[in-house]
Amino acid sequence: MFKKQLSILFVITLWFALTIGLGTKAFAAGYPITEELIHNNRSGESLSPQGFVIHSTDDPGANAQAIHDYWDSQYAGSSAHYVVDDHSIIRTIPENEVAWHVGPTGNHKFLGVEMTMPATHNQAYFNETYNRTVWLVADAMKRYGWNINDIYSHHMISNMWPAETDGHTDPDEYLAEYGKTFDQMRADIQATLNQLNAPPAPPAPQPVVQKSAPKTQPVVNPEKAKKVEKAKKAEEVQNNGYIEIFGRWVWQAIAKVG
Ligand SMILES: [Zn+2]
């Protein structure tokens, strides 16, 4: 019975350990990325990325798979390394290859990610897409050692090279619809990077176990010890005397009976 209780306790402990362990792992690992490389809209040029440009598609209702399929199936004259929606991050072009998202100068410097849009206003869709994009960019910052000044909106790139970018201002409007600015997005990316860079939490403090103090040897007073010894002996003698008297009495009694 006790054994059975012990094994149940063991199973519960194991379950807790696994649940907490896996939960932490999932958080540390962020979001899964699916690689589905496209066959069209590929430059074939090599890229050493120096930063990330964040876009929104301006194509309501087309999720990440739909955008992927569009770029994959035909020439569009545009592409990005990543497409994100409310449940997935798809890598469509390797990070070491130029994509077509911000004009020739920027394309040869930066990675690009497209945030997709729901068909109609949808806060949950936005939140999931936003959080995935924030994590994706923070993770790249950690991997490449970039700082937040290496992270741009398409709008910022348009201001830097106006002749090359057709005046795009995304993703500002998409963020504004959900009460965000690009500055806030950068702050959220920085906060996520800080989390990714945070040293692992120190182990929980162990309860302090008070070691039993070493037993002090009783101080022996030789005089007192002698006295005690004497008293013990006296008692022994006395006891022996009683035993002797008792023995004699028993002996006499037996003799009488006999
Ligand atoms: Zn754009």
What does this entry show, briefly?
The chain has 258 residues and is α/β, with parallel strands linked by helices. It contains eight helices and six strands. 50% of the residues lie in helices and 9% in strands.
CATH topology descriptor of the largest domain: Lysozyme-like
The neighbouring-strand order within the major sheet is 1-4-3-5-2-6
So what's the CATH class of the largest domain? Alpha Beta
Radius of gyration, in angstroms, nearest whole number: 40 Å
Number of helices: 8
Number of DSSP-assigned strands: 6
Largest sheet: 6 strands, mixed
Strand and helix map with partners:
Layout: H1 2-29, E1 34-35, E2 51-56, H2 64-73, E3 82-84, E4 89-91, H3 104-107, E5 110-115, H4 123-144, E6 151-153, H5 154-160, H6 172-177, H7 182-197, H8 222-257
Parallel strand pairs: 1-4, 2-5, 2-6, 3-5
Antiparallel strand pairs: 3-4
The structure holds zinc ion.
Description:
The chain has a 6-stranded mixed sheet, with helices on both faces. With 258 residues, the protein is α/β, with parallel strands linked by helices. Helix 4 (123-144) packs across helix 7 (182-197). The protein contains 8 helices and 6 strands. It has helices spanning 2-29, 64-73, 104-107, 123-144, 154-160, 172-177, 182-197, 222-257, and strands spanning 34-35, 51-56, 82-84, 89-91, 110-115, 151-153. It has 2 domains: 32-197, Peptidoglycan recognition protein-like (Lysozyme-like), CATH 3.40.80.10; 223-258. Helices cover 50% and strands 9% of the residues. It starts with a helix and ends with a helix. It binds zinc ion. Residues 55, 154, 168, 170 line the site of zinc ion.
